[in-house]
Structures are given as structure tokens and as C-alpha cells.
Design a protein that fits this description.
alpha/beta; 7-stranded mixed sheet; two-stranded antiparallel ribbon; globular; binds S-adenosylmethionine
Length: about 190
Amino acid sequence: MDYYEKRSAEYDQTSWDHPDGETRVAEAVRTALASLSPAPTLDIGCGTGYVSRWLPGQVTLLDASTAMLSIAARRLPGARLVNARVPSLPLASRTFGRAFAANLYGHLTSAAPAELVREMRRVADEIVILDQLAGDGRFREGPEERELLDGSTMTVHKRYFTVPQLLSEVGGGDVLMNGPAFAIVRATSQPPK
Ligand SMILES: C[S@@+](CC[C@H](N)C(=O)[O-])C[C@H]1O[C@@H](n2cnc3c(N)ncnc32)[C@H](O)[C@@H]1O
């Protein structure tokens, strides 16, 4: 079973609601997202919808995990749901004002991050990516073993960013949040060549 399918029921308590300081991060993220103007938004890798509910405007929820999507759907009743695995987005060009991805981009490997950025630019006027910063200020990536509450373990790929690295990968833009622990960058989509 996919890691996130299995983790869905315990995701919030082991991430955003974890007592080890993530609530302080959540508050910073909520404040940064509140600064955005309302726009029809595609939330890619929405998970349980914990962050999705802070996105201003009509939200479309996309995730590869049906278990995650069904939790997010309960949190955002009425949101359109898309069950799909990125980097390809099964959506028409220029459908959204904003394409957003939180804590997904840094899990993608090889060509997938660049492909996802291209796809986000294709479907939306601007792209916003939230991902985790390297604590020591040095970009790094590799496999990571994650333990679930039942004691089982699964391996994920994880990239930890610096803000300049993240900005360069989205093709330049502005920084909506720089810490604690996470960054949010925004880039405007270029017209397709
Ligand atoms: C770390 S969670 C982040 C969830 C949410 N955005 C948040 O920040 O709380 C990553 C989410 O992305 C989804 N995901 C992982 N790889 C995916 C892919 N290739 N395509 C679509 N969703 C994916 C997982 O199912 C999971 O819900």
C-alpha cells in the first residue's frame, strides 16, 4: 500500500497537530496564505486538506491517495475532487488562477519536479509552492525511512531546500514565507512557448 494511503488517518496528528512545534509553523503558513488574493486554486497533493482550507478562493483538491482525498473532502465540502498522480495534471490549460503544492514537491524525484512546475504553469496564472527548509541551510536529498504509528516503516524520497534553490527551481519569483522550518515561494506563469 502507498505510504500516504496508509498514513492518511494519522497524518494530522503526526504532522501539523504534532506537539513538537508544528502548530507554530501552521500559524505562519495560515498567515502567509491569507496574504494571497482570492483565486480559483488547484491544491496538488492536498492530503487531508489541513492547509487547503486556508487557500483563499474556490479550491479544487487533487491527490493520488483516495484515503487522503476523502478526508480532505469532508474538510472542504463542495470542493471539486481530482484523483490523479502528478507530475502530469489531467486538467485543461489556464483553468486556475493559482496552482498550489504543499509538502509534495520535495518528495518528487528525478525529472518530476521540473515537469510538475511546467504543468502548474500550464494550468494556472501563478504557482505557489510550500516546502521544507534544510535546517543547516544546505540543500540535500535522499531516501528517508518513516515510521507509522503501528510501528511499520516505509521509505520516502525527500529534498530539503534553501530558499534560493526553491526560487531557482520555479524560475524566480517572490518569497511569501521564509521559516520557521518551511518556505513558501510564488512565481507567475509565463505564456507557453
Ligand atoms: C506530505 S503530504 C502533504 C499533504 C498536504 N499538502 C499538507 O501539506 O498537509 C503529501 C501528499 O501528496 C500526495 N502525493 C504524493 N505523491 C503524489 C503524486 N505523485 N501525485 C499526487 N499526489 C501525491 C500524498 O498522497 C499526500 O497526500
